[in-house]
Amino acid sequence: MCSGKCAKCLGIALIPLAILCILANILLFFPGGKVASENGHISDEVWFFGGILGSGAVMIFPALVFLGMKNNDCCGCCGNESCGKRFANFSSIIFAAVGFVGAGYSFIISAVAINKGPKCGVITWNHALWDECTEPKDIIPWNLTLFSLLIIMGGVQAVLCAIQAINGLMGTIFGDCKCCGCCGGGDGLI
């Protein structure tokens, strides 16, 4: 399989995941699905924007690079003849690393948020006090569900970026598919 085709598939998968992560983080600003009566009810970890930045905005860059790799021809990338598929594959490794870090950030922030629990009327939080956390209403299932989704989606994004890093490394070392009649002839091997 061509590394460009694989990268395009991974890019297509990352875009909806990034959008869902952004939405999940935005929903966390509405504890229990309602407008917060005060910012004190919003968990501190929501303000770190793990879903908006880490698994969201940062993930858009690798996704777009991965999507664009299939469109690069054998003679160059971005219209520059001195740059070829191997360089495109190498640069995709860098963007995969950026995506991996972004997904990891979201994953860690979400795991910490689940461990600490939501802010509610209980001063000292621990899992034994879940029944006592009544304000805002439904805050516990709300936070657990959304932060768990961020953990799952961040983990999937990290795996997809790791796959692209391996794919890009293989494309850098071994080249990509054959191209016919490119750059004035030759066998077209990269």
From TrEMBL:
It holds the Pfam family L6_membrane. InterPro entries: L6_membrane (IPR008661). Belongs to the L6 tetraspanin family. It is a multi-pass membrane protein. The chain crosses the membrane at residues 12-31, 46-67, 87-108, 139-163. The keyword Transmembrane applies. Keywords: Membrane, Transmembrane, Transmembrane helix. It is found in: Membrane. It comes from Pelobates cultripes. This is Transmembrane 4 L6 family member 4. Coiled coil: none annotated.
